[in-house]
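Minutes, project check-in
Item: structure for the 210-residue chain
Input as provided by the requester:
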Amino acid sequence: MLLETWKRAQNLQVATREEGALVGRLDDFQFDLETHRVYGWRLKGSGMFGKSGGVRAAEVELVGRDLAYIRTETAVEWTSGKPASVGGRAWASTYRGTTAITRRGRSLGAVQDFVIDRAGQQVTGLLLHGGLLVPLDGRVNTGPAAIIVESSDVVVELPEDESDERTAWWDRLREAVVKKDRGDDVELIAVDSTAVDATAADSTADGVEE
């Protein structure tokens, strides 16, 4: 499983496989609070006054290092309406800042970033302020107003200085988000140190419904 972070994926150019066209940039995504499956992505059109649109996650083929690929430009629905609010779902831009606490009430910090798979289909972990990773498994409940973690043992503390420990940082990230099925290999790519520390601008999103 190849992994990526939302902040690194933001503003990636989106290209189509069928037409070989650039259709905009990735901006935001909507995901299920229970299963953490991504429903769809919001795109920003080109130019200062570019239109906004959405594409279903099923149409996304790859969230890569320099480009994101979708199947075809006809999959993008360009709209001018307000983002849809759907029960049981959340947009990354608005869920960022949600506080994570243990069942005993200990505050762990607020969400700073999201770990997603390279196919843009699944959120696999939450990065909190202070360099903490919360892997999304059965020990974590992501509610609309707070994230409840079974215990502080679930949280993985990542190295503060990634520049000197890039490999170790990703090894620890891999161990935290690897599936319980140990038969699944997890392959990771290097991510710029700014991907975890940069602050992403809040954005409004057009609704993408399944």
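Outcome recorded: Residues 179-210 have pLDDT under 50 and may be disordered.
No further action items on this chain.
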